[in-house]
Every structure is written in C-alpha cells, then in structure tokens.
Amino acid sequence: MNSVNPNTAHTRPTLRRSPLLRALAALLMVLSLHLMPPAASVAQADNASIQAMQQEEAERAERRRPIMILFPAGAALITLILVLTIKRRK
C-alpha cells in the first residue's frame, strides 16, 4: 500500500521561477501599461458631444411619454374587466 500524507496529498509542488523571468514579466507589464492610451474622462470630453447625448436622451423621453401615460390606464382597464368578468360568473 502506498502511504500518502493526507496533509500534502492535494497540494501542488512549489515552482521556482528565475529572477530573470520575474524581471521580464514585470518589465512587460510596465511597458504595456505605459503604452496604453489614457482613458478619456467625462470632464475631458468636448461639450458638443455631451450636449448631443443629452438632447438624444430628452428626445427619447418625449417619445416614451405617451406610452408611460397609456400603460397604467391599460393596466387599470384590464384589471377592471377581469374583476367584472369574475363577479358576473359567480
């Protein structure tokens, strides 16, 4: 029978990486982060694009307004019809 230590049966052996490999990996990471383009924040974006996005959002809200008014009215009407139908059957 094999005698296996239960404390070390499922552990991976330690890997020894060379300092040169670690240095190259660190250098690669630093260079990749250095060469990435900077992220443009909202404060840096030009005002015209922000105003255009706000205008589009306002237009969408105007198109949704009739639907937002009709939806609760339709739900109330369907509820009323269901209640009257159920009461009539009884």
Verbal overview:
By secondary structure, this protein is mainly alpha-helical. It is 67% helix and 0% strand. The protein is built from two helices and no strands. The longest helix is centred in the last third of the chain and has 43 residues, at 47-89. The radius of gyration is 33 Å and the shape is flat. It starts with 18 loop residues before the first helix and ends with a helix.
How would you summarize the topology of this molecule?
Blueprint: H1 19-35, H2 47-89
Oligomeric status of the shown chains? single chain
Q: Give me the secondary-structure category.
A: mainly alpha
Q: Percent of residues in beta strands?
A: under 5%
Note the overall shape: flat
Total count of strands: 0
> From the alpha-carbon coordinates, what is the Rg to the nearest angstrom?
33 Å
The biggest beta sheet reads: none
Listing every helix as H and every strand as E from the N terminus to the C terminus, the arrangement reads HH
Distance separating the two termini: 79 Å
Query: Spans with pLDDT under 50 lasting ≥5 residues?
Result: none
How many distinct helices?
2
Mean pLDDT: 79
Helix content: 55-70%
What key attributes describe this structure?
mainly alpha, 90 residues
In short:
The protein contains 2 helices and no strands. The protein is mostly helical.
